[in-house]
Fold each of these.
Amino acid sequence: MKKTKRYAMLIDLRRCIGCHSCSVSCKAENQVPLGVWRTWVKQVEKGIYPNVIRIFLPLLCNNCERPVCKTVCPVKATYQRKDGIVMIDPHRCIGCKYCMAACPYNVRYVDPIKKIVQKCTWCYRRVDAGDLPACAKTCIGGARIFGDINDPDSEIFRLISTNPVQVIKPEKGTSPMVFYIDLDITAVEARENI
Amino acid sequence: MNEAVRVVYNIHHEIPLGALIANYFYFTGLSAGSFILSTLAYVFGVNKYKPIAKTSVILATLLLILAPINLLIDLEQPYRFWTLFYYINPTSAISWGSFLLTLYPLNCIIYGYFMFKGNEKMTKLFGILGIPLAISVHGYTGFILALARARDLWHTPLMPVLFLVSAMVSGIALTILVIYIKDRFFSPLMKANEELIVDLGKILAFSIILDLSLVFADIIVMFNSNPEALQIVDRVLFGKFKNLFLGVEIALGSLIPLLILLSPLRKNITLVIISSLLVMIGIFAMRYVVVVGGQIIPQI
């Protein structure tokens, strides 16, 4: 029996060099306005000289299996495709920003031009045409691997099966679909001083 | 080790729900609280509260008509608000709210109409209908916050209860203020009904104790929760929100009024009025601390 498609992304942090080309290509592909980002690379320094490391943590919408944004949207503007991509209907969103408050990953933003909430959709138009999302395509280290997690012949299935992987904030119960190899939890938990 | 971790680069995350939402919660709380007070005479038959029933039902109706205006202004697409009534998501608290916010003021208007007409039977009927509506219209705002799983300050089953109790507190305080002003300056006698105000002060004191114990329980559990919750409690108790929370909400808005209302000073009308005013300010600070303080820590 052929299983349904379920897209996922694996980010191999051993290969990320923090060049930000994923952020740039995403901006170009999705025409993301100034000041907001669909994907970005958080940079954290850990340790004191000479024992110090710089950690790069690319972040994007996790397109969760159980998205809390979909649960809380009052007009069902946020919905999930059969292949798992969480989408926003631009004609339905009323801009109440409840989804932004409920998202444990802070990946949603108000589009300053369209005045609706937007987020990463894994470049669904490119994916439907059989191509990779712009960030995965452009990543020079090959750190972002995108594919069908239910297909045993795919690269992402092979890498997730043979490596220890982690997700961000599994305790929130959203079953995120962006997996990380070599994830340092201090980089996730580090906050600027507020 | 934590001192040796520094964020070198991260993007800016805006705070999605701001002061307007806090104000909305404040208004619905005032409305629900005054509505419950007005039902004391006409549904539960406590006749000594009859003089306040008409005032508080007008307050309940007016505030609930004003409250959703905050929501409308806060929407990014205000002209799409009416789609809330036919794109319904049963899992979303805002979706429940769009119906509660329509039914409750309608019920308030009918209930008030019969009250002013002197039809006690119909007043009682719509009062009985109104009590669950008033509880849900404010209880659901607690659920809005409690169902937003990401924010540790909000994601607690205590939130709807806490909101209901603080609604009672602020509703009673508002009613005391308004009936004092009404009787003192606009009634033919030009004299406040002191006995009634002292009596309402007692209910106010009781509600403040309940409210304080819930806030205390919430903080104690948060202190023993996950690290993120601990970071938020830290900001609320010792950081950016410490003046607003400890100073305005707890000291000014709860403890000082409580001391006045429990001591022999409670017979002094001026002090009761001052403590009602302080309570109203304190509850607004509470709404602001909960809504904005809950989002102060970026998730990533």
Amino acid sequence: MIARGAAAFLALALAGCAHSSMVLLPDEDGGHGQVAILESGGKATDAVVNDANSRATLGGAQPSIRPVGALKPQEAALVGDLPPPAKSFTLYFLEGTTDMTPESAPVLDELRAEIAKRPGADVQVTGHTDTVGSDTDNDALSQKRAEEILNLLASKGFDRLIMSAVGRGERELKIPTADNVSSPPNRRVEVIVR
Amino acid sequence: MVRGPLFLALSITVIASAASAEIARVKSTSGNAIVQRGANHIPAATGQALEAGDWLVTGKDGRMSLTFVDNTRFAVGPNSRIAVSKFEYDRTRQQGSFVTQVDRGSLAVVSGKIAKSGRDAMQVRTPNSLLGVRGTRFIVEVPK
């Protein structure tokens, strides 16, 4: 009787104590990653959730991992609340200048539209050069290119507080080249909109 | 292409500025949702900047979403209490480490550059488990 009573008590305790869980979802591009359960119930584990649409119940010494069908409504709502992914834009420049190439003008328009449709946007502007000229000059030129874009955006009414501009000189070439090589793809400003 | 002391100095500047300030921005919020920073309880607002150590706290009708500077995205569900206990990110090298603590409630995550920068560089702690995030989208739920 005592053993049966203890078992019943245990079953009740387990039912009453909802467990933490983790649901691994497919990535937005269709693939999926992994989540390792490094510790569960105070003990190290080597369990890894490998399959998308799996639910791991956490807290036991041996976490249980099962396939999930449809998400619960509150889970689907939560996933629906995720902000859109960051989007990046690249604008190109004429050699040695802060003048955009004519082809980049429409990209600037797309960039403005993207910022405008994102509440609470954060805009990171990074300038780059090719390898023509000294490192010092290129640091300055890349910074000016980034600031040129930031100023253009500010002139269209975007708050400077949501934007930052930094120049990386010739350190991060898009297309690797030797020193003192003129390269249109390397003369660029990259903008990330979050 | 000379990578001398200037390069080093610039790198250090970038790391220092990344460590000090903004780590994320609030993208949406509804209902009772606050950011707790030390003793301050700040109502969550769209566009608000977050700092490492902030707690995200929602009531029974509260929700908020945010995007971090490494492109990680969060959606926080109702009745949640979640801390960004650690967030270190070097924008130049795109490396860092990120620890989130979910005391209760629900959190959806799409991991970003930090999770890609090293094995288990991004971790999520619940009261009874520790998860290592290896580049993915997932939900964590911690019932009361």
